[in-house]
Amino acid sequence: MQQSEHQVGVLAATFAYLIWGILPLYWKLLEPVSPGEVLAHRIVWSLVFMILILTVRKQLRSSWREFIYIFTHFRSAVAIILASCFITLNWFVFIWAVNSDRVVEASLGYYINPLINVLLAMLFLKERFTRWQGISIGLAFIGVAVMTIFYGVVPWAALILAVSFGLYGLIKKMVNTGAMIGLTIETLLMTPFALLFLLWLSKQAAYSPSFGSLQTETTWLLMGAGAVTAIPLLLFAIGAKRISLSLIGFLQYIGPTIMLFIGIFLYKEPFSQIQLIAFLFIWVGLFIFTTSKTTAFKKMTSKLCKTNTKHEPKAS
């Protein structure tokens, strides 16, 4: 029974990261629509989809009780509002990056994210990182610095994606809401602003409506934004409950790797030697960061330390 539960967890988490990895293909189909309009529809239809899911699962009443509980406690109310803002920023920048031919830079952001998480945990949760985690963060910093120095431009999109998602995860850890209920509340908070933006947009003289226009494909894609947002999150929640955090740590690199390949090979985005060097620093950092938690890595480093101690010259 435990084995089958573990397999379900692995499959669910893998499919979640696969969907996140190919999401650029979906947003690219909506390239003629402005990122702000796509974001507004993503928020609205995510809420609609989540309400349908909660209705089918008969969890609407419990979700409402949790909503009341959160907003009768000041700290949790502020936290969930901030979480909503950070995930909205993350969604917008990702959509903008994809439709601005910056899929490679978007992938960089999600490669950096695990290391940003460690940094945020140290700053806000007073966690101490190990020497190897410190080396990992240092290597990632060198990678970003290499790109900045040689191109003269800071990869802002990648950094905003990494930091916004890191802060979102940090706040979610502090609030401790379920994945489904959390997403429902976050989209509920942002939906009034999304609807006001769409209403304002419709009043602009130069505006040509994308939703409900003669292009039915675009309308369906905008409505589908809710499903493609919620489904991987739900799959991830199923997987995270059934498999170890270390395995999640390995699987999470599926998404940015797929994005990187899509950016280079499908959309023919430039990937120079300098970018490769920068990515290599980050990849090595990530490899050390991920494997440093494993028993095999700890055994190997302890053996190396013992070997070095044996070869040290004895004091006369």
TrEMBL record:
Keywords: Cell membrane, Membrane, Transmembrane, Transmembrane helix, Transport. The chain crosses the membrane at residues 7-27, 39-56, 77-96, 108-125, 132-150, 156-171, 178-200, 220-240, 247-267, 273-290. SUPFAM superfamilies: Multidrug resistance efflux transporter EmrE (SSF103481). Coiled coil: none annotated. Signal peptide: none annotated. InterPro entries: EamA_dom, EmrE-like, RarD. Residues 8-148, 157-290 form the EamA domain. Its main location: membrane. The keyword Lipid biosynthesis does not apply. GO terms for cellular component: plasma membrane. It is found in: Cell membrane. The keyword DNA-binding does not apply. Belongs to the EamA transporter family. This is EamA family transporter RarD. The lineage of its organism: Bacteria, Bacillati, Bacillota, Bacilli, Bacillales. The gene is rarD.
